[in-house]
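Long-time lurker, first post.

We've been arguing in lab meeting about whether zinc ion would sit comfortably in this protein at all. Half the group thinks yes, half thinks no, and nobody has a model to point at. So I'm putting the question to the forum: if I give you the sequence and the SMILES, can you give me back a predicted structure of the complex? Inputs are below. Any interpretation is welcome too.
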Amino acid sequence: MNDMTHLDAPTSLLAQADWQHLEPIQLTPFVCRLTAPNPSVMTGPGTNSYIVGTADTGYIVIDPGPNDAEHIERLYDATAGDIVAIVCTHSHPDHSPAAKPLQALCRKSINSDPAIYGLPNGEGAELHSYFTPDKVLQNNEQLRLNSRRLEANLSYSLQAIHTPGHASNHVCLALLGCGILFSGDHILNGSTTVINPPDGHMGDYLASLDTLTQLCQQQNLNYILPAHGHVLPDALHVIAHLKAHRLGRDEKIAGVMAAYPDGSMDEWVRHAYDDVSPNLWPIAKRSLLAHVQHIQSKSKR
Ligand SMILES: [Zn+2]
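Top reply:
Settle the argument with this. Predicted structure of the protein with zinc ion, as tokens:
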């Protein structure tokens, strides 16, 4: 970033306005959040679509969300259709299906012709997560937003970082010079992200947390803007806590596996997630499988 003030509004970044889906919330002069109307156990208050940019630079939309006509229309209105790029952090059905219809809306009104960026789905992806971007994001590739005013020397860069684990085609994005990390589903606020094999992978997830730690240190990233929930301050602390939590669960599950070597997954989930409401055990069982595979692969080494 050149020539523009740094994040000048941590207070608005951290303001926890009630969730609503009609209007975007301005988090910084350069970043808005528009939450899709798809709240659920899995999506919390709904998927956060982030709109990066200004009327001067045009906009990049991160995670346009589910294929919800009203949400797509609101993204279009919030940007006046001036969208330079659409980026999907990964291809799950609450993140990427709006990309094509939003692109089509921009093309129809000839305001813009944004390419869809991301990574193609991995082989283990479920049918609802099949996805082919127009442009494949390379690791560390930067997307730029430049001022169109001749006299202004403004530009912002959004750097993509490959972070497999929650999904094999997951990327996070750093808004350089602004201290912001868009974490997609890799890091959430208010819940622990599900690692669902075979597309989800616990070893990859933990390694990606280390990648993000390094990135936050190198680029001075303080604020995590997740795809579900509020802004998380103190990025390094959040990541360290998350890693400790996962390793703690890994250890607990290894203990349960040793104590009940012939146990079924149902038995193991009961013991390993006894601190979690039984309502969540069906979901926890997916992450349990990821932990079990991780523990077994470590013991083979
Ligand atoms: Zn996801």
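For your lab meeting: Helices lie at 10-14, 69-79, 99-108, 202-219, 235-259, 265-272, 281-300. Residues 10-233 form a domain with the Metallo-beta-lactamase; Chain A fold (CATH 3.60.15.10). Whichever side wins, do check it experimentally.
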